[in-house]
Amino acid sequence: MTDLHPSMQPRRRLGLKIAIAVIVGLAVLGTALFVILKGALGPLVESGDGFMGALRDGNYMQAYSQATPDLQQALGSPEGLGATVAIYRPASWSWSQRSVRNGGGYLTGNVTYRTGNSGTASLRFIQVDGQWRVTAFQLN
């Protein structure tokens, strides 16, 4: 039996090669974006986790030291931070939104408090001496 359309085979192979090239290209692009975003957002997330971890552990001195001078002045002292947080001490959290824009960093996500209640945590950051510092936070 002879193929009535011998030119169809090369077209099928060309289409398959194009499809594979597109898939490989998308995989490379996705990997590159992941690496870029991880590098840009990693230090921000680490700072947010450090602040929330200090609150969780009741280490208000450490959390206070991760705040900007303006926020420290508004809180007054590590004890003032402890009084502000009070019933909102986190037990666990996860960040669903992470961004850096116009020199500021932002983290927002879900939090479960030590009381068992859950809510939302939002942290705002600026860089002070090359380090991300908390300039505002909201726990509700």
In terms of structural class, how would the helical and strand content be classed? alpha+beta
Q: Rough shape?
A: elongated
The CATH architecture classification is: Roll
Low-confidence stretches: 27-39
Q: Per CATH, what is the topology? A: Nuclear Transport Factor 2, Chain: A
Strand content: 25-35%
Strand order of the largest sheet: 1-2-3-4
Distance between the termini: 75 Å
Radius of gyration: 25 Å
How would you describe what is shown here?
- Helix content is 50%, strand content 30%.
- It has 140 residues and is an alpha+beta fold.
- The protein has a single domain, classed as NTF2-like, domain 1 (Nuclear Transport Factor 2, Chain: A), CATH 3.10.450.
- The protein has a four-stranded antiparallel beta sheet with strand order 1-2-3-4.
- It is elongated and about 80 Å long.
Keywords:
elongated, Nuclear Transport Factor 2, Chain: A, 140 residues, four-stranded antiparallel beta sheet, alpha+beta
Offer a quick outline of the entry.
This protein is an alpha+beta fold and 140 residues long.
